[in-house]
Specification:
two-stranded antiparallel ribbon
Length: about 375
Amino acid sequence: MVRSQPGRAEEQRQAPGARSVGCLGNGRKPGGGGGDGGERMLSPERLPGPEYLAQRHVLTYMEDAVSQLLENREDISQYGIARFFTEYFNSVRQGTHILFREFSFVQATPHNRASFLRTFWRCFRTVGKNGDLLTAQEYHCLLQLLCPDFPMELTQKAARIVLMDDAMDCLMPFSDFLFAFQIQFYYSEFLESVAAIYQDLLAGKNPNTVIVPTSSSGQHRQRQPPNDCNLLDGVEASLFYQCVESLCDRSKYSCPPSALVKELLSTAQRMTFSGFLMALAKDQEINRALGALPDKGDLFLDPAMDQELEKLVAQVSGLSISAPTSSSGDTANFHVRNSPKINSPWKPLHHRRKIDAESEGSNEETDSSEN
């Protein structure tokens, strides 16, 4: 996230005694007169500007990093603050920083949202690969494995894009739910505003039109009440796009590229809100522009993750090998000795209990029955 400053190491060697942690934000050494060497080290031209910091949400991550530092200062003191910040921002860059975090942090930045979507796909893509169909409640349980307080409302909204109704107990394919969830989660604020625009258009109002008091015809046109035909057929697609385009221009939240939205709405004369959501979810160009998930055809392909899973399965299978009772015992012992690479707290305990049971025979069962 924070770009390295080229030439900084060379400048430090040219300025003996200068330390990066001993310089103030204005490039001057504490307690010094602000010599030329210190100013060259952290000149304002080399520091990210406020626009860059705001665009990349650097302050959000700095505040979160400092908060975690204070909460875990006893553990962090063992290996140093510098290493903590290095590992923290490496995790931000890799997208693993959102694992098991609270929902307020998961949705705090566009990068966090994209990281959560990518993590959800990588963790549970085997659900779709195996052809399993799940309900909205079951998908919500999967989401809560990554974010314990993930709201059910977002899951239900994503499910309605697929199901087109409130039948939350219906089964859905993984790919359908994933792309619908991506649109609903990543563009949640944008979709809320679009829903309000859609309701105004149904009521005969144009959110982008300024009504002039002297224009009676304009007032009559804007106040036309909705009828059953409007509810069934939606709103005029071209007018809908004009309102959405204006929203994208002034919105401070993430929005789909307006050119792609225009292309999407140009295929129909009228558009319903549910149809608009489904079209967004199915549009692969919007998916590529967002950049969190692969194309639908490659959704179940992840060679890097497959290799990691194969290594994990091999290590876990090594733990399940029983104590040797034949000449092949040396091979079994070799696998067991390699198993501590898995840093899961319950596995050593499980392994120890297994050895105790084999060494004590039926004594453990007898003792438990007596208790």
